[in-house]
Amino acid sequence: MANLASLVGQQKIFFIIGAAFGSFMLGVIMPASPPYTEEFKLPAPQLTSVGKKEKQDLLNIKTAVNQRIEGFTTKAAQIQEQYKKRFNFSVPARFQGAITYEIKLSGKEKVVALTFDDGPWPDTLPILNILKQNKIKATFFWIGRHLQTYPEIGKKVVAEGHAVGNHTWNHQYHQVDHFTATREIEDTGSLIYKITGVKTAMFRPPGGILNNGLAAYAQAQKMVVAMWSTDTKESYSPSPEEIINTVLSNAQSGAVVLMHDGGGNHSNTLKALPQIIAGLKKRGYKFVTLPELLEMQDKELVAQAKSANLPTEKP
Ligand SMILES: [Zn+2]
Fold first, then answer.
1. Residue 88 domain-assigned?
2. In a domain, 65, yes or no
3. What distance in angstroms lies between residue 168's CA and the mean position of ligand 1's atoms?
4. Is 203 in contact with 165 (CB distance < 8 Å)?
5. CA distance 247 to 255
6. Could you tell me the distance, in angstroms and rounded to a whole number, from the CA of residue 173 to the centre of ligand 1?
7. On the CB side of 209, how many CA atoms lie within 13 Å of its CA?
8. CA atoms of 121 and 167, how far apart (whole Å)
9. How many domains does the structure of the chain reveal?
10. Among 54, 94, 114, 131, which residue's beta carbon has the most beta carbons within 10 A?
11. pTM of the predicted model as reported, rounded to 2 decimal places
12. Which phi and psi angles does 224 have, rounded to 5°?
């Protein structure tokens, strides 16, 4: 037992010596503070020796810095707002779950919304070029499986500032059950978000069919069911002149023009588009996206409601 106790005592001594040596070596190897923090150290402020002038200087600097920060904050808020508008095509509350055709505007400004369905598609690219040359923005309603095939074209549409909406995954006309409607619309919406970062609350039913379960699903999700007021009827293969005539003869402020960029041959639409734009410009029309058009009408309706609540003048 005595031998065992002395053995344990010896081990303790070795351990203590070892630990002390280890700490000493660590101290030698490691500097008091890591060298990489040295250059970031700022001298401690010597506020005790600050005179009147220095105090004023410090105050001025503080004020200038605060002004700059305020400026940055305002700018950041503006950028955030622009970003939100660009990538979140939400709709004013009055249009959530509503069906829209033309958007009636009473203001002096004449505006029209060009919309293109069934893309993204290779024909989307020349349409984008025409829109770019004319510095105008349009609205595209996408088919999910087409976006899956042409994601880069989809990205280009959004990058160039156009609005996008949901036009289902498979472009079905027949009656669908709730499950199918969910997949058709939600899968398309998710892919639009995944590829472009856009969240859209705009839905256009394939073929404009409102009673096959798809529009009802979109309305229940508080999307706006965005129809149109002028149909260029491309499925009947009209000539470029006929397409131009259809659009120009039906022009009115708040008109929503239906054309197609996807799912077929659009050579006549491509030929007609520059003249449609030129003809509308000549008649004093400006081009807006569908979300912009909805926002314009919302503002007008809000203003009308406000003026209607004004107290009537006493006789
Ligand atoms: Zn379609």
1. no
2. no
3. 9
4. yes
5. 9
6. 10
7. 14
8. 14
9. 1
10. 114
11. 0.73
12. -90, 135
210 Cα: distance to centroid of ligand 1 (angstroms): 13
| Distance between CA atoms of residues 248 and 279, nearest Å | 7
Range 150-171 burial, b when 16+ CB lie within 10 A, else e: beebbebbbeeebbbbbbbbeb
Assess if residue 4 is contained within a domain. Answer: no
CA 236 to centroid of ligand 1, rounded, Å: 14
Domain that holds residue 163: 93-302
For residue 25, pLDDT beyond 60: no
Q: Which of 58-62, 77-81, 124-128, 289-293 has the lowest mean pLDDT?
A: 77-81
Asked whether residue 219 is assigned to any structural domain, the reply reads: yes
Helix axes 267-282, 240-249, angle to 10 degrees: 30
Distance 170 CA to ligand 1 centre (A): 10
| Contact present, 261 and 140 (Cβ < 8 Å) | yes
pLDDT digits (tens, 9 = 90+) for 117-157: 999 999 999 999 999 999 999 999 999 999 999 999 999 99
pLDDT in tens, 28-53: 444 444 444 444 555 555 555 567 88
Q: Which residues have CB less than 5 Å away from ligand 1 (the ion)?
A: 117-118, 206
- Which residues form the catalytic set? 117, 260
- Nearest in space to 257 (alpha carbons), one of 132, 163, 116: 116
CATH no. for residue 292?
3.20.20.370
Tokens encoding 46: 């010597």
Determine the distance separating the centroid of ligand 1 and the alpha carbon of 303, expressed in angstroms: 35
Distance 180 CA to ligand 1 centre (A): 17
